[in-house]
Write a structure and sequence with these properties.
homodimer, 453 residues, alpha/beta, Rossmann fold, 7-stranded mixed sheet, 15 strands
């Protein structure tokens, strides 16, 4: 029987992260201060990040060593398997070969612990006792809770209120890993109290939760902040995905033709594709595809501009593809993809023409996820379904053309805590809306001005 | 960095199951007809099982070939990893080495698909279009749903009513895999309607659900029945766990001293230990430990006798350790361990003195599970926590004596759908009851009489 799973040993966990800043033909424009619009200085970031992470955020070194203590913790679940989806291929009757890198095998169930472990480690090294963060559906919050618990750091999670009530199990997971989790907006911060005073019944948003976590970190001496996506150092930590993939594809004796990831803040996609971007820019690389929801089409309909990282203008501005920080996507189940912006590194890469972007309605995404679950067995996260949809579409195109392409997608997480959304899909209760251009135009009309030069 | 995960390739999936009947010094007494008490004939079983499984149930051949089609489907997730729990060892400061065989990596999240895939395959071969089964917490129902979907067989699951409402996500998983799932007792069977007529508010029980599924299978020509534990052929299919383990321990250059599994119906424990039993009987083997709940102490306080497989006397009698078919355990969260009987093969082995049994209260079990989640990352199923508790106790004993034992336990499943019970435990809301001897005596006083000689 041919082996369809390509598994590495702990020793194959990369010894260094790959920093794409070393190989992009342009520098990523600096992040800017939300109040002044001027480039952030390291001192601006010190109240919420340790020096090592600030240095990684602006580094142009190609390789950044992974500390042994981080590799040891990553070894709890890494390297993640690369699996050939033979049953899906047979079902599709495609000549293409479809592989997925299974990041769902981590304790928290997604790629997020890759950076959570690194961030918890560097904060521990800096003597930090407590980390505050936000979470939407709970993937990031549970990942950081897990990582903080490994290093004995306290963890406070501001969880978007609607998810806090709809996804109690991810909250349970955070508590299991010793974190404290509150519904956002909360009474625990000034910004939370102000929003609740105006609108006690608000469902909350990721932007509000970010604002609360940043305020918490900035106003407590022993507390730092941690972000689960978007920032350069977060994408850097995720590059172990693509670095492992290269070794696994060599084992499988494959050259990848198409690389696919879903894109919310961008970190799982960045981690998958960054190690391939130099080849792409040199004209030798695979086709790269970002798959995003039609309800939050940052790359396909957004603008490359400076915008705030959060929704209320407290977080720094970044130069990125954005729909405008005031843009509010409809309530799709892929909560992790409901972000107005996109990682600046990934955004620059996309601006340089190194990547395609596609958007899918959620019914089309769930259709793909159900097909995957019924052929390959594993139930994917709603976010991941967007990547699967794009992979299936590529494979069906190969069926038409007869091309025997090698397609790899990032299986960013499992859907064990999202089964409610599958019930809705299977009951035919999910609706797809076309997003009016006026909604985007309005939010883009409210972009802030940076003074980066 | 030393590798702590021992991973095999698809080619290492065993080519044959190991049948312990070939090596036990006594034959497992025959199953008997529930009405007559006389040994079941193959003809008695034909209405609900395919011939191949009936043959496996009574076979004394040592090795039974695994069909290639079954191995191909098992390869979706097998071989399962053997992992050394180094973080748990460090936390315990034990000189023992603790390993776990991670059966939680299967699509349904437990060891159950190992037999579900085999049973679905043989039913498909026999031209069966539909399979009916029961499920408690949903582990078995979701596993059979997954397996039936792989082979295009319809699947009907009778799910114990209290779990049907308390564990909606395992129900969602069954629906995702195309199964139809009803709360038991249901209006779909005669036995269900009778029970509902007497007690409309009953919470149901595994015994009732078995009765419904057996009736469904016996009364539909195109429908067979499938059981997730207890029977000889089910334990047989699980032996791939122990067979893989032997290869993995050779890779790890270990000789196992203690082998541990939790025991409800007994199949995960059987699968782990059967390949080691001949060594044990020859005086060379590891110590084998069955870990069961104090609330349902089948091996530690039950009797070796003939009893019905279900709670109402419709299913065949088996010679096994039992608390009596009318015994109703308290509502502990480890639903999969709330069964009055125990696999006859495992029971005989225990009667022969080849295995120890221990019982734990649920708070002690959850304490172990939380320790595991906080050190090794993965959240275990409440059932699995019983095995972890016994492993931790063995490791702590080694700490006292200084012995560097090699301890292996079966991580029978993850707890992603059981987080509610962790919430209860962490909130201090789980209660432990001492089971009065009178309850056991009463149920044992109602044992049926078999005429097996």
């Amino acid at each position: 029987m041919q082996d369809h799973r390509f598994i590495l040993s702990s020793n194959d966990i990369p010894h260094a992260w790959y920093n794409i800043a070393a190989d992009l033909p342009e520098l990523v424009p600096p992040h800017c201060h939300p109040a002044t619009g001027k480039p952030l200085t390291p001192d601006d970031m010190k109240p919420i990040f340790p020096d090592t992470l600030i240095a990684q955020e602006v580094s142009t070194e190609r390789w950044i060593e992974i500390p042994d203590e981080v590799r040891e913790k990553l070894a709890i679940w890494r390297p993640s398997p690369l699996v050939r989806a033979v049953n899906l291929e047979k079902h599709l009757k495609t000549p293409a070969r479809i592989y997925y890198k299974n990041e769902g095998v981590s304790p928290a169930g997604s790629h997020k612990p890759n950076t959570a472990v690194a961030q918890a480690y560097y904060n521990k090294q800096a003597g930090i006792k407590r980390i505050a963060t936000e979470t939407g559906a709970g993937q990031w919050g549970s990942s950081l809770a897990f990582a903080c618990d490994l290093f004995g750091i306290e963890c406070k999670v501001y969880m978007v209120k609607v998810s806090y009530h709809q996804k109690p199990y991810r909250r349970s997971l955070m508590q299991l890993w010793n974190a404290s989790c509150v519904a956002s907006p909360s009474q625990d911060t000034k910004v939370g109290r102000e929003i609740l005073a105006k609108d006690p019944d608000t469902t909350g948003s990721l932007g509000i939760a970010i604002s609360e976590a940043v305020e918490d970190a900035a106003s407590h001496d022993d507390t730092n902040y941690a972000l689960g996506s978007v920032l350069n150092h977060v994408c850097l930590h995720q590059t172990i995905i693509g670095l492992e993939l290269k070794k696994q594809l060599a084992l499988a004796e494959e050259n990848v033709d198409v690389l696919i990831g879903c894109a919310g803040g961008g970190s799982n996609l960045a981690g998958l594709v960054f190690p391939y971007v130099k080849d792409v820019l040199d004209g030798r690389g695979p086709k790269l595809i970002a798959s995003e929801p039609t309800a939050c089409p940052t790359l396909t309909r957004g603008k490359y501009a400076y915008d705030f990282g959060d929704s209320v203008g407290m977080a720094p501005m970044a130069c990125m593809f954005t729909l405008g920080h005031s843009f509010v996507p409809s309530g799709i189940h892929a909560g992790g993809l409901r972000y107005h912006g996109m990682a600046p590194t990934l955004s620059l890469m996309h601006k340089l023409g190194a990547m395609e972007a596609r958007s899918y309605h959620q019914n089309a995404a769930f259709e793909a996820g159900v097909m995957f679950a019924r052929t390959e067995g594993i139930c994917p996260a709603p976010e991941t379904n967007h990547a699967i949809r794009a992979a299936i579409d590529e494979a069906l195109r190969c069926k038409e053309t007869g091309e025997e392409k090698c397609i790899v997608f990032n299986f960013s997480g499992h859907g064990h805590f999202d089964l409610y959304s599958y019930d809705k899909y299977l009951a035919g209760e999910l609706e797809d809306y076309d997003l009016p251009q006026a909604n985007i135009d309005k939010a883009l009309g409210e972009l802030p001005t940076a003074h980066a030069e």
